[in-house]
Structures are given as structure tokens and as C-alpha cells.
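Board notes (copied after class):
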Amino acid sequence: MTECASSHEAFSARARVDGKDCEVRLEKGWFGWKRLSRGRTGTRDEHVQLLDVIAVLPSRRGLELDKGSRTCPSDHLELTLFEAKRKHPYNRAVHRIVVEFSDPSLCQEWCTRLQRLLAEIQCRPQQVHVFINPVGGRKRAPQIYDQYVGPLFELAGVAAVVTVTERANHALDKLQSMDLTGIDGFICVGGDGMFHEVLNGLLIRTQQDAGVILERARFLPVRPRISIGIVPAGSTDAVVYGTTGTVDATTSALQIILGQTQALDVASIESQGTLLRFASLACSYGFLGDTLEHSETLRWMGPRRYDIAGARCFIKNRGYECKIRYLPSDDDVSHPLDKSLCVANCVVCSRGIGELLANGDFEKGASAVATNEEVAESTKDGDWQCMEGRFSSVVACLSACASPRSKAGLSPSAHFGDGCLDLLTVQHGSRTNTLRQFVRVASQGSPLTLPFVDVRRCKEIQFRPVVPPHLEGARRNDPPPGLPLSRSSSQQPLQQNGVHRTSGIYPASSSTCELSDGAESPQGSPGSSTEESGAIQVQLRDHVSIWNVDGEIVSQAGIDIRVHRQLITLYCSGIPPPDEVTPTGCFGGSGLRVSPT
């Protein structure tokens, strides 16, 4: 919790506020004013919390002077407070409060005092690096930054270095080599793909600096000290919508300036003990994976490509045999069907977080590597469970996956910071069932109550596809490449892009919940001809899908998904609870409100 002026005595004076004679007062982090009534009683007090003020500048007739010089001139009588005021349950806008004094020295004293109190709020970023994706969504990211974000950063005194990305993975590569000294946050102006790229780049850089070996099985990641912010400019903007309740660029920029933060879970996607990438939204196999794969061939269509690709997959109506080994959540309080929502100050997300901080689990440094004994303990059969079947979709949701198109999301009661994911499996059936699911998601209903949909809250998942015996060891031709996790600007990936799929064959008996990745051959089978290999590819396509990981393709079908609780910090306010008007920072963060006295 941040109290910007709790240690200072009350300070009061007479002034004109927005043209009205008032008594102004500064006390315990609040700037308040009361109109001096003339023969009238009952004039109510008005106030603004300094945590909501982004800047205090000398002004003239309501217009601020040169932003580069924030010092109030000795002969000046007026200053302006710029408040991030709530205009909607979720949206914010800049509101000006003009204060005019009769004495220049008094104006100068108030301006200096207010600016000093704002500077004492430690949670606010002073220097950020901005990545702008000029081709994402409707290609309006540069315009959005220039029109809405840049001027606000300048007003609030936030130093911003801007990089306009020129190619895929530009931000990821730059993060591996750039100097991080003094940077408080990385800001993504784009969609979920831009955020996903910066997220992976920052996490990989942090692990490298801490000496964490990403190629080692079950590594324990270190939490970055730098936060990430998102200004929505993409096609879906699910991360922003799920953490703020809106996709308004001004609101996101103001939350970044105010330093409001929320911690988010991150999942590591691994294959055969090697990291493929990190994810923060959802990992989808089957329908959504096929849709993404086909949409990559239609990028020229823009956002509409997802509708066309989805219609194609709906007509094909494919199902995939697979086996899933999962570690159920040990939380007896929350459940995917309990109708609880992840809001600001979320009770579910805050449960047990004090123990993690006390034990230093976020800052394990170079020793953050699991021992052989820890690996054996975490993978033993004791608490693991298995399921198998033919599914049209398998989705691991780290959040509700809500968006303007689906306001409730795929799993409405999933939480951003509880250390779990919701495993959704949709039994393969008729197109009517698929259509019912789509209608339920689009109408803000929960698809989890449908009879052919199953949901389980888990901490870890091990997924393997099942293929006919004659296709064991074969691989599909690689789909369009996703995001290679490069370790340097030379683009040496941790896992080479285009690595073939794991066949994911289980042992004959699955009662012990043991998994085997099976043997693979880069040509499908030893000694096979080109014609035979092509025939195998056609057959394999009907039995193995691909993974859609936060909107990026992962070609390996057999993967392990591990959740790392509250691994990153995101600039956002959290969605206000339905019974509250003012937002608060999740987990007792920087956005907590203090009631006026």
C-alpha cells in the first residue's frame, strides 16, 4: 500500500478552484477543497487522492506551461493538477483541477510540495522502453502511441525510449542484449502477440542473468524485477481486457503512469525437458490450434482470417486421440464452476502469497534448478491422475481468456494468480455440439456446463497424442513457424524452430500414469521414400494437431505445461469487484485506496 503524504502535517490555504473561492487542504495523501459559501450551508467537500494524480504543473488560464520545466515561476499564481479520473466502471480519463492563488509565493510553495509528494510514490515508473508493433491488429499502434500514450508519458514526466519493431521477434532479440539499467518497465503497444514476445524475451533474459539453466528439466524460474505494460492495439487484446475490463488505450497508459500492478501466473511449455516458450493466457490443442495454423496462410486478410479459418475447421470437424496426465490443484476452496471472478484484491489469488514471499521463492537466483530428488518427488504417481479419449479441443487456461468478443471467456472462473490452470476437454462429437459451445461463449455464458465439456483445475499437465502403430515415430511437416526463443541477437534458439513433433506414445498400460515420448525419425521412418513419407504426412495430419500457445504456433504435440505462480508483474489495476466503484491493486499492491479522514 502506498500513502503518499501520510507522514506530513496538514497544509491549508485559500484559493480559487476551477474559478470558485475555496479552502484547499492537503492531508494524509489527499488534496481537498471546500467551497466558501456566502450565506449558504451544506457545501460538500471535494477531494482527490494523490495516488490518482499523474502530474502537477504551473499553468496559465488552465493551460500548462512548458512541460520540460516543472518549476513554478516566482511570479506565478496558478497550477493545475492532472487527475486520472474514473469516467466509467473501468475507463479512466485525464481531468484538470485548476488552482489559483492570490500570492505567488504561496502558489510556488504548493506546487513544490505537491510535486515532491508525487515524487515520493515509489511504485511509479520513471523510465520505460516502449515496443510498438506497426503491423499488428488494424495497424494503428504507431498512431495510438503518438495520439494517446506519448503525450501522457511526457505530461507525467515518464522518460520513454521507443522501438518500432521491424520484423518478427525483433523485441525478443533486442531484450537479450540491451542494457536494462534504470528501466522500470517494458511497454507493448500492440496485441497479445506483442505482449507474448516481450514476456518471453524478458523471462529468458532474467533467467540467463540469474544463471538458470533453461535446458534442464523442471528448472525453477526467477521473477523479473521489471514490470510489463500493455497498450491495446491488437485484434483481440485478451490480456488487457482480462486485467482491466476494457481495451481503452488512455486507461492503460494512465495505469502504467500510476504504477498500478498485478502479478500474473506464467506457464512454461516444455518438450523432452527443453523449454519451448512461456505462456500467460492459454494453450489450445485441436480446434483452436488448427484454426491458428490455417489462419497463418491468410494473414493478408487481417483479423477476418480467424473467422474464415475457424469456419473451415468447423466444417472439417476433426477429433484427436490423446492421453493427458495432470496434477490436480490442492486448493479445496476454489473450483472452475464456483462462479468466482478474478478481480482486484482477489481472495483466491492472494491466498498463500505471503508464504511465497517469506520463503523467497521468487528470488532463488542461480540455484533455481530442481534437484534429481525434487524432480522424482514432483513426478511420482501419488497425486497424478490420467484421462484419455477423443477430443475436438483441449485447452489449458491460465486465465478466463475473456475478450471484447467473448466477455465471459472460455473459463470464466479461472484466476490470473492462483498458481493453477483450468484444463478444458471437449469431447469430439457433432458439429451441433461445437456450435452450441460457440454460442455459449459468444453470449457471455459459461461453456463449462455443457454435457460434453469437462473442466479440472490443475497445477501441471503432461499431454501426449495417440497415433496408430504404423505412424509411430513419424512426424508431420512443420507448420508455419511460431516464436523461436532466441538467446541472443544472432537468433540462436533454445529449441530450433521447426523441430519435429514428438509422437507421444504411451506405454501399453497407463494405470501408472507414466509417459513416454517415443522414438522419432526426421524422415518419418528409416529408409522411407519421398512418396511414402508424403503419404504418411497425409495420414498423420488426421491424427495429430498443433498447439496454439497465446496465439503462437508450437509444432511439438507432446508437451508438458507447468504453472509458475505470479512470475511476472503487469501494469494494470485489476477489474473492480461488482460491488465497488474504485479499483484496487491486486494482492495489496500499489493501487490500494485509503479512505479520506
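Comment from the instructor: The first strand starts at residue 11 and ends at 17. The chain has a mean pLDDT of 79.
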